[in-house]
Design a protein that fits this description.
The chain is an alpha/beta fold. It has a single domain (about 20-155), classed as Glutaredoxin. Helices cover about 40% and strands about 20% of the residues. A 6-stranded mixed sheet has the order 1-4-3-2-5-6, with helices on both faces. The longest helix has 16 residues, at about 50-65. It is globular, with a radius of gyration of 16 Å.
């Protein structure tokens, strides 16, 4: 009974610790690419039911903390109507509650995946790295933090 009360209390408190989830719909990918044109961008796709995704979320939080100027977006691909409370709880628990978080919001998620990468069949985790010149690199599976840090370092603005 105590655990149930604690779980309910945590779920009620989650929205206060989280920015919420923006809807990732048709056209979102093109809009994001346009908004962040000429800036390096990382978009990480994950899901609550993906054990490797859940295990690496804290690593992403640490990376985001180390590179505060980097643009790193998180998109959950959990199908609607997946429990939003579970998604928000996972983000908050991992330290990503205040990150720029999105959620697939289309009854046909294949269409959204195709917009991101026509070759992406939905495996998770999935990460897209986009240089300021628009060069795209995709990473399927758990991302290597060392490789991500190196990529971010190469994308840092040059100081004069």
């Amino acid at each position: 009974m105590k655990r149930a009360c604690l779980a309910i209390a945590l779920l009620v408190a989650v929205p206060a610790l989280c920015n919420g989830l923006r809807p990732f719909v048709r056209g979102s990918w093109q809009r994001l690419r346009s908004v962040y044109r000429d800036r390096p961008l990382i978009v990480h796709f994950w899901g609550v039911s993906c054990a490797p995704c859940m295990a690496e979320l804290p690593v992403w939080a640490a990376l985001r903390e180390e590179h505060r100027d980097a643009v790193i977006l998180f998109v959950t691909t959990d199908p609607e109507p997946a429990a939003e409370a579970a998604i928000l709880y996972a983000l908050t628990k991992s330290g990503l509650g205040l990150a720029d978080n999105w959620r697939f919001a289309d009854s046909f998620p294949e269409r959204l995946r195709y917009e991101v990468d026509p070759g992406w069949s939905g495996e998770l985790p999935f990460t897209v790295l986009i240089t300021r010149k628009g060069k795209i690199t995709t990473m399927s599976g758990v991302a290597d933090p060392k490789r991500l840090r190196q990529w971010l370092d190469t994308q840092a603005p040059r100081r004069k």
